[in-house]
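stage 2 :: seqdesign
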């Protein structure tokens, strides 16, 4: 049998103790309002007052919220619900704000660090290019540079640029000038000095007749055996001849990536600088080529240059790849997450081991590990604008792909989560306190009502006696 709540005509407010006690089951608890004519006849009620009481009872009963006990909005626990909802909302908003602030800070820090790396690498590359230009200026300013003078110049360049492996000078020698060159360049006590080239079996033989030659005349290298190649014609090899022709047409430094004589690595780069006679200074470009004296060149290893450049930097959570490709080409690969082209790969820096890796297979393996682990390569934007930089060397573009490790930006998520948990803890604490306080107040009010009714009953019994 379901128990209902009898609401008297002088108890018509929703916050009274009897109605408040049925909030938990308000839909199944009937509320009873009685208009008793017999009771009105037995009691000496004023008629107009009785009409007002009954009218108030009917209006009270017709209220929609009476059916659900004014739902939750009239519940004494309404403040608890509001407090909890507001606390959760504010905690969430605060955590989002903290996340955005931390994200902005880590992004700014990341950009500062990679810009610093980029500027350092650009500065070193410009110094390498400048060294080549200075070497060319030495030959343009001097009518003749001796082997001793070249050696002294080279010994000043090597310590300042540890990535440079070889420095050389090859004059332009026409067929008509060949005999004179061989006689003037021949070492002392040598009667059979000739301009040479490699035959099909890789042996040094006298160079065949051609319109022009670019024999090695001065050379200093970390590979001592290259000093024995004086007189070797660079133009006898297609890869050298093509780049020399390009430098000749361009009239400026040209960069090439290929295997140079005696070097055991194909990851080296060669910068060729054309050297002209003094009268070519005011000549038009098409005439300037006729006054070409020769080419100077430096062979350098990018991995050594990069390792030396970043030696004093604290790269604790940043890896980077360097590719010998324009930025837009690399960006198109990155957006598709398919950057595994070995032909353009130069090197990879691993911050864990602080090693510069030149093996494309090993670098691609590390890239694949990141991909398999689901790491966000560039967490700041999908188009890689933040994580992609470019350096320029001899008119060519090198693209640098920077990748922050998880520990670099995990602080953002950690601080945002801590803010959310702290807010939820404070909300839960306050909510529990309010709930217990209201519950205690309701129990106290019920006790007061119960005691009041008992006092009235005792008083009525006493009066009847």
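stage 2 :: out
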């Amino acid at each position: 049998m379901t128990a209902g709540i009898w609401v008297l005509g002088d108890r018509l407010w929703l916050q009274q103790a009897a109605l408040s006690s049925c909030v938990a089951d308000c839909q199944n608890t009937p509320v009873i309002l009685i208009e008793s004519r017999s009771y009105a006849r037995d009691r000496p009620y004023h008629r107009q007052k009785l009409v007002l009481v009954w009218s108030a009872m009917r209006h009270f009963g017709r209220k929609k919220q009476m059916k659900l006990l004014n739902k939750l909005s009239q519940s004494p626990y309404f403040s608890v619900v509001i407090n909890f909802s507001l606390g959760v909302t504010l905690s969430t908003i605060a955590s989002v704000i903290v996340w955005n602030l931390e994200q902005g800070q880590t992004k700014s820090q990341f950009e500062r660090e990679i810009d610093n790396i980029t500027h350092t690498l650009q500065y070193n590359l410009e110094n390498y290019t400048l060294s080549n230009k200075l070497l060319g200026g030495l030959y343009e300013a001097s009518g003749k540079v001796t082997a001793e003078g070249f050696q002294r110049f080279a010994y000043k360049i090597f310590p300042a640029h540890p990535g440079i492996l070889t420095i050389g000078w090859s004059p332009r020698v026409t067929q008509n000038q060949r005999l004179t060159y061989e006689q003037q360049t021949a070492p002392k006590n040598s009667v059979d000095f000739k301009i040479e080239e490699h035959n099909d079996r890789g042996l040094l033989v006298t160079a065949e007749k051609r319109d022009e030659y670019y024999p090695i005349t001065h050379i200093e290298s970390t590979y001592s055996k290259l000093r024995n190649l004086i007189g070797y014609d660079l133009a006898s090899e297609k890869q050298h001849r093509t780049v020399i022709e390009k430098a000749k047409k361009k009239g400026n430094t040209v960069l090439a990536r290929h295997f140079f004589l005696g070097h055991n690595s194909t990851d080296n780069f060669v910068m060729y600088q054309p050297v002209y006679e003094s009268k070519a200074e005011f000549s038009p470009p098409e005439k300037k080529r006729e006054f070409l004296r020769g080419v100077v060149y430096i062979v350098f290893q990018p991995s050594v240059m990069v390792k030396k450049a970043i030696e004093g930097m604290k790269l604790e959570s940043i890896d980077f790849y360097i590719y010998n490709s324009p930025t837009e080409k690399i960006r198109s690969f990155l957006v598709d997450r398919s950057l595994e082209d070995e032909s353009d790969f130069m090197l990879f820096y691993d911050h864990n081991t602080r090693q510069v890796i030149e093996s494309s297979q090993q670098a691609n393996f590390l890239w694949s590990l990141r991909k398999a682990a689901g790491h966000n390569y560039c967490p700041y934007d999908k188009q890689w604008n933040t994580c992609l930089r470019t350096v320029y060397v001899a008119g060519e573009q090198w693209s640098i792909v920077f990748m922050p490790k998880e520990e670099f930006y995990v602080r953002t998520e950690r601080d945002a989560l801590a803010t959310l948990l702290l807010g939820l803890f404070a909300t839960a604490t306050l909510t529990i306190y309010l709930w217990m306080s209201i519950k205690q107040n309701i129990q106290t009010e019920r006790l007061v009502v119960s005691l009041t009714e008992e006092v009235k009953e005792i008083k009525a019994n006493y009066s009847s006696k």
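stage 3 :: structure notes
- The chain is about 50% helix and 15% strand.
- The chain has a mean pLDDT of 80.
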